[in-house]
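agent: user wants the full assembly modeled, not chains individually. Plan: 1) parse entity lines 2) check alphabet per entity 3) run joint structure prediction 4) return tokens. Steps 1-2 passed, three entities, 1071 residues total. Proceeding.
--- entities ---
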Amino acid sequence: MIIDGTESSLRAYLKTLPPVDEVGAHARAAMLATRSIKTTSKSWAIDMAISMVDLTTLEGADTPGKIGTLCAKAVRPDAMDATVPSVGAVCVYNDMVKIARTKLDAIGGTSIPVAAVATAFPSGRASFAVKAQDTKDAIDAGAAEIDMVIDRGAFLSGRYGEVFEEISQIREICGDKAHLKVILETGELVTLDNVRKASYLAMLAGADFIKTSTGKISPAATSPVVLVMLEAVRDYYSLTKTRIGVKPAGGIRNTKDAIKQLVLVNEVAGPKWLTPKLFRIGASALLNDLLLQRMKMRDGFYAGPSYVTLD
Amino acid sequence: MNPFEYAPALESTSIVTIKDRYGLFINGKFVAPKSGKYFPTINPSTEKKLSEIALASTEDVDLAVKAARVAYVKVWSKMPAAERGKYLFRIARILQERSREFAVLETLDNGKPIRESRDTDIPLAAAHFFYHAGWADKLQYSGNGSGPKPYGVVGQIIPWNFPMLMLAWKIAPALATGNTVVLKPAETTSLTALLFAEICQQAGLPNGVINIITGEGATGAALVNHPGIDKVAFTGSTEVGKLIATSIAGSKKAATLELGGKAANIIYDDAAIDEAVEGIVNGIFFNQGHVCCAGSRLLVQESIQDEVLTKLKERMALIRLGNPLDKNTDIGAINSAAQLAKIKELSAAGDAEGAERWSPACNIPADGYWFPPTIFTGVSQTHRIAREEIFGPVLSILTFRTPQEAVEKANNTPYGLSAGIWTEKGSKILWTASKLRAGVIWANTFNKFDPASPFGGYKESGWGREGGKHGLSAYLKASN
Amino acid sequence: MERIYVLKTYKLFIGGAFPRSESGRVYAVKDFKGKHLANTCQASRKDLRDAVVSARSAFPGWSGATAYNRGQILYRMAEILEGRTDQFIAEISALEGANPKAAALQVEESIDLLIWYAGWSDKISALDGSTNSVSGPFYNFTIPEPIGVVAVFAAAKPSLLNLVGAMASVITSGNTAVMVASEKFPLPAISFAECMATSDLPAGVVNILTGVSSELAPWAASHMDIDAIDAAGLSPKVLKEAQIAGVGNLKRIKTPPNIKSPKRILDFMESKTVWHPIGI
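--- prediction returned ---
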């Protein structure tokens, strides 16, 4: 353990992290975005991206019917092509977890985990008791992954100990029943220095994954943000020999964006991270674009939106 | 084995038509050389011949200079400045339109990665024309008096490392200020200059305003020594620069010289390390290290040398060396057999003098000229690789303990072209910059170029500046 | 039988779109002989308010764009204008009573003026910026910066040249503009808006209103979100009223005498000086 969890040790530790030069980080991300992924590597990347998708619906209007069709899509993304892999997980609100779990089990998707957003998602503005209960409820209902939000207010006002404590306690509630993804909401942290600090804070407090965004705030998973988070998990590995996962979410809508993410993973954290165990993409519309591109690779001509299912 | 090994992503060459043989571009037309001689130009990544280039003799040079003189006297010097500017705008726009064609041709002829020719060389070349187009009718605001005058006919000689970009750096300010030009591209990289001649035709540029003569060292010497030349502009080695300075001594010819460098890239312990590592890589491996301002001496503060070295090696392992036409290539071919031999010779000297060499594993193609990205650690100031310009992807790593020591070591060279500073502390950037004896200082970045930014060196790195207001002065006789 | 030609509807140019005046008002534009040419919108204070909102929202993007990019867009306008020369010659001849040769000359000068200002975008800071030799271990430099949203009351004749020159000088540095065309000669302004709309110019950077200057000027002058006014087209009486109303936010109200001058660009810029220590 690098720190003992006290406010002062956290503050001291976070100060030792090297700063991020924003212009340089943007330039690096932009250079990697020019990588041109063709033919065999593109086919591989599309299937890998599909298997990394956390297929998500987080709407006030979600219903059991909507969750049902989402689960069906998660198991068999392309009804006409059984060679398409299943997605990485289904990501829903707390009260939809049971419905999703039941549906997945019923249609042959037992291996697909249900992820629940928790801790008063998306704002995180509730008492800790409520956040804890939120998490317990989700796990009891069958969630195998918890996507919690950090208290950005506490982080921005420098109360790192509070942020750390909250993550640690949710970590404890998750125990060995659920993987913990910690959402930094980088669009509210604004600077890349903050992204690096919050990444370390989450990893030190026991996150299995660090995740960019809730999807409710813009900007979300920009390339420079993902770059800095991937650098964080890479450097954390060389410190601790523990591999932490990364999940960009929000704004990744097409195949090109998804492949850019995989290039970032490959060239920043390294190929060891090219697995759904260590990299996920939070998305909904992305899946259909991946399927359309997959059809193009397979058939040699362009398909249209009428040839993929809505959800 | 990495499951995500990128498949080849080759840029198509069908956009480019290379003729079997090229003449000289004199007075608006391609003409056969009076010498009757031609020499081959090859693709350095395959060693295959691309075309044959005319070898201009003294007689050909004379014709070109005369054409430039006539164009100067009869057309260009009489033309309203704003109209001159419009020609430059046209050239900028046509270059933008045909940029991919130029990028592919540059990569074929030079060996540099298509990513660099496409994203850096050609867009910057167009930007130079655009920027200087705007100056043509604003010279009275350039700090050279209310009515500055051009020199007349300018002889320009450019190197092989950025053929098209150096052409733009030379021609754009010369034309904007009202001079006419005879330009000689480097012997191994003439093709984009010859394609540029087509742009001049498409732009309707009056005959003789730009003349392009190809050839070798003797052609360049004939140009420099021609009595009809009013000003010489040269980019290349310090050795040749000194020859030029000697040969124009006693004449009225003005000269600007952009010569060699041995830039220090200083990494302080409070730098943004990840971006600094990127800056080191970009500083020395950009364009195979064929960059006069390359950050070829890394000065890293001792307290962070292990961390920097570890990260640098990890990063270097990701560098992709190979076919320059592959869009994912980071390091292309060395431009010529002669240059490769020089890089090998200096690297061997590094070994012999006791420095430790390291390169990541990389597949060197069977044909063509290649050198892997290389670093030397344990280098001291006395080593040849710390003093001589290698002009290849070879980095010499030295350490320092204090800012004073960093500056002393950085300045301990006859060169003074550029330097880099990496620290998140602003006051230290400015302190270091104020002490460094170099013409261009990059802080928390490296190898950045812009037409609005003057470029050029102190000491043996040359005379004068190119770019910005200062670059205009090099082509103008100031008035009161 | 002679073909009946299609008449053009002249509308306002706000936020990249061509709306009619919210007031529903139009006024008749006549040619130099008094013959009816077109009905054009008579913009209201609310149209002005909308134009200011769109100019303000365009300001961060436009002032944050590279100077090179701004220069290229102004140059693009010149390209588009060049291709539509005949239309402007016709409008200028009809409105101003200029003979076709003089009208053509005005269009050519307008094109060249656009290019002239395009060239200034990345040079004005080299002209007016400085590093200052202060006593002490400080690096001290001064740079010109765009002032913000500028309202322009374009002078009348030559109408296209005045409009284009005022516009280009204001936006080349990164300002955004709300322009009120000459009341008597508004048609080239709206036709020029069509050039701008097809020049990669981001929506809202330039907005053009037609109408009665004396009606709009007091509202522009008292508007707290307009930073400066180019008052070249205002009468002395309206100008004085505007100067008094503009005191509210100490608006910079200028009447640059020369349509082609770097001074004109600097009239709508602020200077910023930065101090920074030098040390280890």
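agent: reporting back. The domain at 264-443 of chain B is CATH 3.40.309.10 (Aldehyde Dehydrogenase; Chain A, domain 2). The mean pLDDT of chain B is 97.
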